Protein 1
Amino acid sequence: MSGPVTIALAKGALLKDSVARFAAAGLDFQAVLDPGNRLLMVPSACGRARALLVRNADVPVYVAYGQAQLGVVGYDVLREHQLPVAELVDLGFGGCRMSVAVKASSPYRRAADLPAHCRIASKFTRCAEEFFEALDLPMELIHLAGSVELGPITGMSEAIVDLVATGRTLRENGLIAIEDLFHSTARLVGHPLALRLDDGALQEIVDRVASASAPLS
Amino acid sequence: MSGPVTIALAKGALLKDSVARFAAAGLDFQAVLDPGNRLLMVPSACGRARALLVRNADVPVYVAYGQAQLGVVGYDVLREHQLPVAELVDLGFGGCRMSVAVKASSPYRRAADLPAHCRIASKFTRCAEEFFEALDLPMELIHLAGSVELGPITGMSEAIVDLVATGRTLRENGLIAIEDLFHSTARLVGHPLALRLDDGALQEIVDRVASASAPLS
């Protein structure tokens, strides 16, 4: 390929592990972890690649449009946004569950027990909709941008669908997870056309990241 | 009304001025400005009201569903999400412009000059769509969650539609605003039914906030 490989990295919780995984593949993006870094486009130490620092939800956008040939993003985002990117490697880190949660005082203990047409608040309304459709339970979905746990607390929604890592936020807000939609981890994704036209440089990065991500046997 | 008045406040840039405006109306929400505050629901010092601390985009959701009787939110969010809330007072602060911006090196100096079907990146794709439709210019809109300035920098989009306050972010990224869609300020909004059923308590708050917001004559 001509020019440096561009890799879209999600700012936030996945960034540190993403940098470590590319380090194992010979690409040093340590500079993006510098708290003083204000750049959104950061070259690797060797100059053969550059990182695009973007929001989690924007990683598949840059990869789908080919502005980045590779990207690292949570499986939850891939499920929610369903953009045309190739899923290449399960990186294993960033593990969490997409769960249905209700107030601890709620009488409902399974998703299928929830009353039809009740309100579900979520940042992941597409995931939630698919899940309840599969249960044949029509629900009123309320899209929120953050602090979804306020839905049941204020009485706006009966339940929420949200990512649960340690469960601390749920506990602090008097909520309990009653069912999981799926388990999510960080994934290496690629632009399908870039992978097809690859002269070997991309595949080498993908292979090295995959080796560094393989569970120890 | 029964129980305390609930007021949805946007976390972030609008919060400090929002608290000052309600202080002028006799409601002390100073506690929400404490950096150590982790609560999302904060009672006023007098106990007659409580603040819900939510994302900008979620303020009209809580007000539309009646979980908050009043809320403070940017006009940009009201334009983008178009939920059924009553717009009560222009609070005057949080001023910014929703603008079309291009690379400084771009040949285009008016929105109407942009080529049809070019790509526009934005967090406010509904606002952008309406604007270009009114110009009779069909565009391909790309929704991003943040750092929209990367659109033209990476070559993914010809232009962006984004909020511009000081213009510093545009300048730092080599972009210039070429046209404004509208000017935005913070607005006091209310739940239409709560206003209709109000026994006077809500209207008193609205009137006091309005007085504190009136331009000096």
Protein 2
Amino acid sequence: MRGNKFGKLFSFVTFGESHGEALGVVLDGVSAGLDFSLEALQLELDRRAPGRVAGTTNRKEADKAEVLSGIFEGKTLGTPIAVIVRNTNQRSKDYDKLKTEYRPGHADETTQNKYGIRDHRGGGRSSGRETLARVIAGYFAGLMIPKIKVRAYISKMGPFESTVEELREREDISPYNFPNTDKNTEIKKYLLGLKANGESVGGRISVLIEGTPVGLGEPAFDKLKADFAKSLLSIGACVSFSFGLGEEMANLMGSEVSTQRGNFGGIEGGISNGEDIFLTTTFKPTSTVGEKAKEGRHDPCILPRAVPVVEAMVKCVLADHLLRQRAYGDGVINE
Amino acid sequence: MRGNKFGKLFSFVTFGESHGEALGVVLDGVSAGLDFSLEALQLELDRRAPGRVAGTTNRKEADKAEVLSGIFEGKTLGTPIAVIVRNTNQRSKDYDKLKTEYRPGHADETTQNKYGIRDHRGGGRSSGRETLARVIAGYFAGLMIPKIKVRAYISKMGPFESTVEELREREDISPYNFPNTDKNTEIKKYLLGLKANGESVGGRISVLIEGTPVGLGEPAFDKLKADFAKSLLSIGACVSFSFGLGEEMANLMGSEVSTQRGNFGGIEGGISNGEDIFLTTTFKPTSTVGEKAKEGRHDPCILPRAVPVVEAMVKCVLADHLLRQRAYGDGVINE
Amino acid sequence: MRGNKFGKLFSFVTFGESHGEALGVVLDGVSAGLDFSLEALQLELDRRAPGRVAGTTNRKEADKAEVLSGIFEGKTLGTPIAVIVRNTNQRSKDYDKLKTEYRPGHADETTQNKYGIRDHRGGGRSSGRETLARVIAGYFAGLMIPKIKVRAYISKMGPFESTVEELREREDISPYNFPNTDKNTEIKKYLLGLKANGESVGGRISVLIEGTPVGLGEPAFDKLKADFAKSLLSIGACVSFSFGLGEEMANLMGSEVSTQRGNFGGIEGGISNGEDIFLTTTFKPTSTVGEKAKEGRHDPCILPRAVPVVEAMVKCVLADHLLRQRAYGDGVINE
Amino acid sequence: MRGNKFGKLFSFVTFGESHGEALGVVLDGVSAGLDFSLEALQLELDRRAPGRVAGTTNRKEADKAEVLSGIFEGKTLGTPIAVIVRNTNQRSKDYDKLKTEYRPGHADETTQNKYGIRDHRGGGRSSGRETLARVIAGYFAGLMIPKIKVRAYISKMGPFESTVEELREREDISPYNFPNTDKNTEIKKYLLGLKANGESVGGRISVLIEGTPVGLGEPAFDKLKADFAKSLLSIGACVSFSFGLGEEMANLMGSEVSTQRGNFGGIEGGISNGEDIFLTTTFKPTSTVGEKAKEGRHDPCILPRAVPVVEAMVKCVLADHLLRQRAYGDGVINE
């Protein structure tokens, strides 16, 4: 009830401070009998890992997943699945000065005021490291929705922009999660330049969801769009969410919109209509700038590493709604 | 668990189809001993009521609130509060043709597919009428947070735009909920023009929240911004949410953002920092256009009537988080 | 979150004070497309109604169910179902003296202390009348589990005792819900005698559940037996719960128990094993005794009217667990 | 949603199979700033540990608690607290024969049927080892309710019986958790005799709760008695629950009960009245009997080790209700 649980039927709780013993997740809603692969899980974590590509933090941590329960002989048991990742590279003394210093745009001061206490050695519970638990949850969500294809990508990062059409043309867009991979060299140069200047930049991450069955989402508060919004705004640096035509809708007349079903972004009345679903989010620039930002472990742009987190949250929402729809056994989805 | 419940500690469930017997709400999380006024509640409902101003639907329904439980001698009892509004002006035969006809952008087809059955006489559960239950809930949320001032307003409607500064200058902005009330005559003319042409228009509703105590919101999934996002995206026509600088963050450098605390929109690390909170949403144009839209009961623009609904949802989120913070008894908020 | 909600997937919230406008229930978890009969629902309510048989309260209220939402053309819509019962026979002045008087064994004093306010005109929220909302919920639960047969009966009331074998021999055991209906005349005489003396009596209600599929119940906290226990102890006068051999287990050796599967009461490891499930509860005597109890509306024994409430709660637990098991799609139950 | 979570505001999720890597718990509802002692936590775990006293299992496991998150410099942070216990003494080959063999009275067969898969190496998720996670949760619950004294004890074990008065006379009743410690030698002899004969025995555990504030518990479904019932029936071998006079109520007249407030067991209308609360449960005999039961690791009687588990669950319920009552800020409890 302190907000560390996500989901209703496909639900999980995450725990861990950035400089504590470990971070982790307990999933209490995964079906039994699914094939589990530690290697596949680790690959997902590696996509989020720091220090993977030039221009992101060089804080290299193993981020090695350890499964404590819920898996037996390579299959899910239907019991809670606990996975932890130990913090191995804590470098706590780097953070000592933060004890009495609050970083703007971070949770330092609000955490201190909320609880009257905090782990000052880093972001604590509000650190970006918390998102690795989400990536683990997203891996298991993916096992539940094998027919749905969820792909997040950077649609804008500083001067670089990319379209969903560019994404559709490609299967793999690593390492920067930017569809137009021809720009990779330029992006690298751009990010290294930001870093050298102690600067950071925001941008946009979009999501294309293909293969969603008709009927996911509930008509009142748990509309599919509402749960997507919550899931993505729950990511630290995310400051906006839209779906379909999004903010552009403010400039359109009804006659322009109603002609084409695709304009509704795959969701009508809060319920999936079977079309592709399209989401867009805005991420603010990393708050740490100036001399401090030139230190190794800071990301000049969070976007490349945020992409797998966005994908994970979207998958968790879909898995949850799939289970919810299945429970009641009505409508076409269950036929 | 079918998504008709909202909130955790300040929680409520809504019910009712647009052409059924009644709509209503049961609140299970209101403190005892608060002063209740049926008149004040009715005033909130009237702000949302159809047919109130020229240029909106002329479907005039009493929308009269009837309290069934939880109030005794003018005070809340701490027990569940049930309030219903009867549907008096159903005009069901108008809708008969909809039995086999699905309106684009509405929930007609998705509802049919999800459940295998629907009340075809109107939007059913997905009708805008469902929002009157939210306005009732918002009234009670307001009783829980008397020191927080929540004001929603139209920041853009077709060619008309208004700023938060214009809002700050005024106490009352009715009837269009547009801060620059000098434009009321023009707006009226504009909306009547849309109506005559069977056209509709989208826009933006923004929210200014003053007086939020420090420490509301939880660091992981139930960040204050995440719960605001969910609450507003759960409104039918809402297609985007942002807070603080919002989408503009995609175009900014860290050095531009970090200089001013106000840029974080009153929320740092998902937790309120005591500053004003600023939210913005986009609403799509009403989907019904053409000849059908010229009929009396259709709104050419949903925004004026959506403003009290937006306010209500924001209040419900704040009341919920205030109770959550109070429960644990830690931090400055409880001193 | 103030405890007026029951169930997770088959969930409902109840509301209403005994002397307020109405009592009711909103169900948010009933499948779509089920056949609804107002007559059948009313019959369930009538089984609980006061004044039905000699020896129970003569407070005759219509207890007429009114459906406000969720039903369309005789079918459930999958949307929330709201049903209310108006309080027509409030006789409030009878209760005026209770304003400053707390009845022992009732919730009068604890309610006042908990909330700092109460509706003193009767039991308020803690009145036995609250259980009519449960009976309504139980009717809908029954629609979800048509293959499971739930029968509650009085196994002991004062000097009268009856066995599950006597129940198995009969289809209908009304009006006292005592299997050995040959005793009806004696029971009537006994209850009228109690009434004349301002006396009351406790007893036991047992439940036989036939046809439960294998696999309902969860291994840790939501064991089927745990949820049955909670559901029945949530009834006002219920003071004990047991299943299978129950308290007798305290006197048995392992070798005596393990020989026969039936001894485990249909639940092993918290999960149904497909055998008949057998539950027993104890109800305390009505707290009101003496001169006051001779007044018309008091029941000398709550048991006959509690039987349909017990059945309703058991059905709600079963419906909830059936939906939960169905959601995850694993195991034999889904084949 | 698969039933591994307990509590609403003081809530926690447990995980782990008896022969997996580890068992553990994540608490998401502990206040910030409480003093934590690993030694005190370990002492609670040791009370439940196997092999502690003669006549119980000789499966000696370290059951060493490892804190992964939520504690910083000896204080709770208000963030989720994760604690794990590794399984060090798995002896899995002992259990190989169980792959195709279902033990009566255990969850073996129901688990297989429910999930279509199971960890056959032991009780898996349904093993008694799962209760160590509850003991850990109970330790933290205790930190939240320092003024409430919860003491569980064996009131009947085979031929031995003890009363609450005997408990009141003593501060410490270890090692058998039987108040009349003069019987310790006899009990030891009795249990060793059972073991030698491959026999087991059931009994009763009672609980005395002193110092509960007035006003805990909710009037409808979350009555304090109902939540106690659920919490205790969620323990594997528990087959009955009662409070106050319990089953004896079936034999009493109203006039006998209403004379003394103590007869209501500290709970009126589901809400604590400030008096001592008295609970009683029945535990069935361990299901494993015969030659198999003579092997070292089997307990001839689960009661001595179940006592700290019962205490833990009761504390968790009280902490949860204390937080719930505090949240709403009404009534005497908050003054």
